[in-house]
Amino acid sequence: MSRPKSREQQALEQRLETLSKYLDSDPENCRLIEETINILMQLQRFDQAHELIHRALKLQPNQPNIRYQLASLLMYTGKHSEAVSIFYALLEQGHTHPSIRYNLAYALSYLSEFKEAERLFIDRQQRSYTDHSNPISRENSIEDKEVMQSELLSFHPEAPLLLAKIEFHLAKTELSEKLLKIYTEAASEHGHYPPASVAEAYGLLALLALDDEKLKEAEQLSNSAMTIDPQNREGRIVQAYITLSHNQLEQAQSAFEKIIKENPLSFRSWFGLGVVHMALQTFEKSEEALKRAVEIHNNNMGAWNLLAWTQLAQNSLDKAEETLRLSIDIEPNFSETHGVFALVKLLKNDIEAAEKECEKSIQLDQNAFSGHFANALILSHRGEKERGERIIENLLNHPMGDEQTPLSEKMVMLLQSVSKNIRH
Question: For residue 331, what is the DSSP state?
């Protein structure tokens, strides 16, 4: 049994019927064609819209409004790369209406071209949008102030959310959080925003709180997201990590696996699954999950570090060393990488190299867990066994950082299980 049509849908269909009659008597009227295409796209009758667009382009091949509609249709039907080409061509021809830039930014973000998408929000004149050799294209940094002053933010109600997601993926967390709060406050005030979008905003805020290890805030925000939309993916990811922090390993594993089934490219879910298997000491499965995580997000040092730990736990020293070298190529100054490298060198009986890596780890971060752990084992190797054991006991019983944060304690517990396997 089909659902009853909404008043809006009924009105659109009535208008479509009227336009169709007008077009029968005036088939080359481009204004009528444009309005008809808009209504067909709102009704998601994409095949009919596509047919009408091509009919219009035969009449006026360079008509910008029709080309814009074609790009929008391609975007709605998942052909984002083709849409991007048309949007860029329109900009280069001098058509700079905010709707073109907004939709281009949307399509680019879908293609994970986040830096390019961010550029579209910057109101600068006299620049080429497609010449990637020009100075503006080469800029590595865009000021937050410029972004917040963008006219696009007020062009469309969803614009702050789109830009927040772009900045989230560019690791500009403070700016992303500011934009998400602007969006959720506006949604609360006006009350007509799409529920799925509002839930996504709360879910992203929950992820940001989780990254800051603010577990209570993360849980509250994820609850807000899932109250609006129980299937909100960001909220479910946060809930899975909360479950993990409470040592409910089977429930966390099930939650991560369900999300991965829906979205095989969910980095956080693969990473979480890897952590679960570390806790269960099923290290082969942990290694498999963490390999998928670094394939998806290869500049996340935490994932590379845990992958090396899982390989150490299996006594796969050569594999661990290869992982660490790849990690150092990406980020040479991550303290934990050098600490784990010290452990590998120590277990390969290269004491001089182990001491060098251990020293570098602690120089980079005085609280480097792996650096101090490696130092303890080096001391034991030198015959200072009691001193080394005191350092290890202190590391495993006194989490560094915020002692009120269960996730920090959880991670130390996981590393403890790995450490025991290394020592025996």
Answer: -
Nearest CA to 197 out of 208, 206, 210, 184 is that of 184
pLDDT in tens, 165-220: 999 999 899 999 999 999 999 999 887 899 999 999 999 999 999 998 899 999 99
DSSP notation for 113-160: -HHHHHHTTS---S--SS-TTSHHHH-S---HHHHHT-THHHHSTTHH
253's tokens: 């594993």
């007509």: which residue's tokens?
192
> One-letter amino acid identity for 315?
N
What is the 8-class DSSP label of residue 6?
P
Decide if 316 contacts 421 (C-beta within 8 A): no
- C-alpha 68 chain-centroid distance: 29
Nearest to 290 by CA among 280, 337, 276, 406: 276
Structure tokens at 262: 């829906």
**Using an 8 Å Cβ cutoff, are 418 and 278 in contact?**
yes
Residue 350, phi then psi, degrees to nearest 5: -100, 80
Spatial separation of the C-alpha atoms in residues 198 and 285, rounded to whole Å: 35
Query: What DSSP state is assigned to residue 401?
Result: S
CB 118 within 8 A of CB 147: yes
CA-to-CA distance for 217 and 406, rounded, in angstroms? 13
